[in-house]
Amino acid sequence: AQKVTQAQTEISVVEKEDVTLDCVYETRDTTYYLFWYKQPPSGELVFLIRRNSFDEQNEISGRYSWNFQKSTSSFNFTITASQVVDSAVYFCALSEAGANNLFFGTGTRLTVIP
Amino acid sequence: DVKVTQSSRYLVKRTGEKVFLECVQDMDHENMFWYRQDPGLGLRLIYFSYDVKMKEKGDIPEGYSVSREKKERFSLILESASTNQTSMYLCASTLGGESYNEQFFGPGTRLTVL
To answer: Pick from B93, B96, B87: which is nearest to B106 by CA?
Structure first.
């Protein structure tokens, strides 16, 4: 069965600090896709990144970076030099090959204090 | 700019009322989804549709039904609203055929059942 665990319910950091959001997943499939979404206070989930199970290369996009490690079934998300606009709920999600739907974690609420 | 719109941002209904939540996407996507979001539970899939007039149950379909008469529109119906259906409802859409396609989300409808 598929499962996505985000153990951190809430995190608070001071502006300019780095922060890492953890995501651990479970799946029996060898082909799957991992996602991160951001949900700002406006409510609409915004897609951040997708990774397939065959691509363990880490990715960096500006202040955002993602570390995918199949050995530990983790897909962690780091924000460098956090800003107040990063305050949101972040969701990690899993999709298995051939499936139409996503399995979401319970989300991590990040608050960046000015 | 791609868009998923939902008919209401906030809705207040009484127990026993029939409630319709409407979702429209302008991206010609095959797949559409309804989720509910509750604190500590993340997003849970209620129903999804992969084509007009086609639907499949998600993880929590009890108490809900759906309708997809046109490709761009996907409706969620609460036949007889109950207080435990007070929640945030999110609609999403994605291209069909591949599980790696990201989902695009609407802004959500916060439903309160009194």
So the answer is: B93
> Which residues in chain A touch residue B103, judged by CB atoms under 8 angstroms apart?
45, 47, 102
Q: How many CA atoms lie within 13 A of B85 on its CB side?
A: 28
Cα separation of B56 and A33, whole Å? 21
Q: How far apart are the first and last CA of chain B?
A: 37
Q: Nearest CA of chain B to the CA of A82: how many Å?
A: 23
The alpha carbon of residue B46 and the mean position of all alpha carbons in its chain are separated, in whole angstroms, by 7
Query: What 3-state class would DSSP assign to A72?
Result: helix
**How many residues are given for chain A?**
114
Sequence-ordered list of residues with C-beta below 8 angstroms from that of B113, at least 6 positions apart, any chain: B12, B13, B14, B15, B17, B19, B81, B82, B83, B84, B85, B86
Query: Of B109, B6, B92, B61, which is closest to residue A102 (Cα–Cα)?
Result: B92
For A36-67, write each residue's pLDDT tens digit. 999 998 888 999 999 989 888 888 889 999 99
